[in-house]
Amino acid sequence: MKDQAAEIDPSFVDKVEKLYKRLAFTDYYSFLGIEKRATPDDIKRAYYNAAKEFHPDRHLHMTSGTLKNQLNEIFAHLTQVYKVLSDRKLRTEYDRELSKKDSQVRRSNFDLAKIRFREGEEAFRRGLYPEAEELFGQAVYLDGTVADYYFRLGLALGKEKKISEAGKMLTQALKLDPYNAAYNAELGHVFLKLGFHLRSKSAFEKALKFDAANERAAEGLQIIKNLRSD
Fold first, then answer.
1. Nearest to residue 163, comparing CAs of 192, 123, 133, 190?
2. Mean pLDDT of the chain
3. Are the CB atoms for 3 and 63 separated by under 8 Å?
């Protein structure tokens, strides 16, 4: 007997298998493909569309026992999802638990980001710039709200001669902390390496405005002055 995968649309088989693997860790809204602020009509529409696609009775011809079991579990889960989200009280309770879980995940990510950042600083100090780039990049991924993570990633990228990428990270750092003299000074040096002398001069002047003693900015302005005198 041929396997089910040979008898039905392979894309449907792939969809069932991927959805089945996500059952344990996908929230109800994501499972239905809707936003958390979805209206009751949105929920009902998403449920009926999914039910038509995954109802076991529509796939009685399947010969793969494994796929049938996966489909049955998906539909049972779908029924539970609709039961909860279509009931105001149950949905409120679910949203409360989901919010608590999301908060715990965010805290966990923030803590892990701090660890990766410290590891990145150590790698940078030792001159292991590719490793530092990877670690700072993980910190940014886990918590994109800390300007210094982007700044240090920009420094690591600069050490690897990835100048344009370094500029993007420094620019992001400045979006989060626009009055930081060190960030402006380093971005000025990036502009200088890229040949954007007017932009670099502006960045150095901003850095000195925020910190008149910033040596990197003063150094950059001196380089520009020397270039103009040559």
1. 190
2. 90
3. yes
What six digits make up the tokens of 154?
A: 């920009």
Model confidence at 80: pLDDT above 70: yes
State the residue for tokens 């792939």.
14
CB contact set of 91 (below 8 Å; sequence gap of 6+): 84, 85
Q: Report which DSSP code applies to 146.
A: -
At residue 64, φ and ψ (nearest 5 deg) are -80, 115
The Cβ of residue 63 has, within 10 Å, a number of other Cβ atoms equal to: 14
Query: Could you read off the pLDDT of 133-142 as tens digits, one per residue?
Result: 999 999 999 8
Rounded Cα distance, 210 and 187, in Å: 14
- The CA distance from 209 to 70, in Å, is 63
Distance CA 223, CA 206 (A): 16
